[in-house]
Amino acid sequence: MTTRRTILAALCLTGLAPTLAAAEETAACGHSAWSIERERAAFAGSLPTVASGSALPAGSPAAVVTLTPAAELSLPVPSDRPAKPGTYGGYVTAAAPAEPGTYQVTLSEEAWIDVSQDGRTTLKADAFAGKIGCPGIHKSVRFTLGAVPVIIEVSRVPGPQIKVGLFKAE
């Protein structure tokens, strides 16, 4: 038995394993290029569910998006990466940001993100933060957005739903 397993077994017997697991989770979520605590809180709460092609609900920067199988996927803007067989994808729109600036699109699951504001081309990401081992958050990508509506496309998602959030960078 490895040393780690021995320690975990001892902690289970003393009731401290949940504390250790919580500490490991906090550590995994805490080491990021920027804070994702706001997103973690939003994703852990009750979110509206919307179908692919819908708008993020007014007053909610995040939603659970019901996706389409890749074989049936049609996105309004050609993706920078083609859909993968056996995966899902879709898109949501968001109202124009109240003020231009840096915004982050955060996802609960592994996926490819494309963002457009002109309906024809995708924006180049400014920065990326991945969170392997952080429950409920897989990645957060920053984009510079103007004061016009936004299209957020996701593809290569392993399951039929994903949590998507659009937040002003702190």
UniProtKB/TrEMBL annotation:
Q: Tell me which UniProt keywords the record has, alphabetically.
A: Signal
In terms of superkingdom, the source organism counts as Bacteria
Q: Which positions carry the signal peptide feature in this UniProt record?
A: 1-23
The question of whether Signal is a record keyword is answered with yes
- The identity of this protein, by name, is Lipoprotein
Query: What is the species of this protein?
Result: Methylobacterium persicinum
